[in-house]
Description:
Blueprint: H1 6-57, H2 61-74, H3 78-114, H4 121-125, H5 130-146, H6 151-175, H7 180-214, H8 229-267, H9 272-290, H10 294-313, H11 317-344, H12 346-354, H13 358-366, H14 370-385, H15 389-411, H16 418-444, H17 450-473, H18 480-501, H19 507-511, H20 517-520
Helix pairs in contact: 1-3, 1-5, 1-6, 1-7, 1-8, 1-9, 1-10, 2-3, 2-5, 2-8, 3-5, 3-8, 5-7, 6-7, 8-9, 8-15, 9-13, 10-11, 10-14, 11-14, 11-17, 12-13, 14-16, 15-16, 17-18
Amino acid sequence: MRKQNFVQGAFILVIAGLITRGLGTIYRIFLSRIIGPEAIGLYQMAFPTMIMLITFVTAGLPIAVSKLVAEAEAKNDQNRIRSILRTALLSVFVLSIFISVIFALVIPLLAKYLLTDERVALTLTAIIPIIPIISFSAILRGYFQGKQNMIPSAASTIIETIFRMISGMYLSYHFLPFGVQYASFGAMIGMVIGEIAGFLTLFVQYAKNKRISTKKKFIHPTQVPHYKQESTLQMIAHIAVPVTTSQIFGSLAYFFEPSIVAHSLSFAGLSAKEATILYGQLAGMAILIITFPSVITYSLSVSLIPAVSEAAAKKDIKSVYKRLHQALKIAYLIGLPSAIFMYVLANPLALFLFDTPQVGHLIKIMSPFAIFLYLQRPLSATLQGLDKAKESMTNTIIGAIVKSAAIILFASRPQFGIDGVALAISMGMVLVTILHFRSIYHITGYTIEIKPIFNITISSFIMGYIAFYMMNHNFLSLPLGIRLLLTTIMSAIAYFYLLLFLKIIKKQDIERIPWLGSKMSKIIP
């Protein structure tokens, strides 16, 4: 099994993430056009429940598996690797069965009293088989990441997305005549099929790797310590529990969000159906666009955790600074122009992608704050790599509480309505990011370099003006989709050369990009 270094691993995950996020966005766009905002609203009401359940079952386990497998791999301790994998899989098996049974019993109560729309019960039922499948997949992904091989994870996510798209659109379309709740159910069944395909991909890769590993020379059991199951479980728990707690609070806030939104909007005078439609526009459309660039920062974070952990173990604070600076620079370099681009072209994007112009208004509210979301993941990954997951947990809890309180405060007022929900979610993103950075500053003394931030900011705003001018003054006779495509390409090229002109990126930086760098550098003067 071929390993990759930090840059190669991050690059593989970025490419896979862009593919899957792009396909996923296309899927959501077509799905929203096929089944409409009401069915999308039911689907989005059920989705946070699934996230919460998966968090309860797995949460910090993949990170723990990744770190422990990496340490054992460095010592060529295959016995420990098998023990880690066996313990983690057994843990998620027991947890997933237990939680699935409890969840199946409370579905009617959740649908009627918490989510305030009994039609969502059918979609919630389709989540039950997803729980163990995603749990096993998460552990195998952590195993491969610990082996520093990102290809199986990348391949499985792409295959999962493709199967989910095809089956989800087919089933939701054919179930739609029976009602919007059946269309939402069909979309969730499509996710089940996709997750099965993704798991099988990982399992095949694992079986292949296991056959190869058996041919290698193993350390004899007498040459390495004997690890009991309890010892391995304790090591996993030490890493996983703080991360799990943090993610549980975040997912609980996400889980209760539809209910809080529905009840708050009812105080503002909206019916349950109107609230469902508006929440579908926000969560299923606007936030889908806002979160698209975060696929890159997520990929950086997956590679950043072991890199920071290794440097911290060696007490190499300069390497910690270097990795964090690289990750934040890339996140800001991509995130800020994306946020500005989404703000400038919010209305045409909403019209073209969703055929729902009012979604553009929600995108405009959230896009100025989106840069904080893109910076949040590298900061969180650094805290986890520094073994400060408790600080990350505390920050997440504070952000979740503030966001929920703000939703109640704003959304219940008729003058805000769904706009208040968008503002509250944005407040949560900003607060957690600021708290993460404050924690890192107190722990390491890390400070931001002003010059690259200033140059990236100038370049991003110039790019935004170019995009605005081109969209409103050029290609006006062309269809909207072609205008958007040309505007995106031309403004991206302009931004790229602005970065080169201001020496934010250099030719040698391009040359270091795995596989494509040498070819891309040829177009640079």
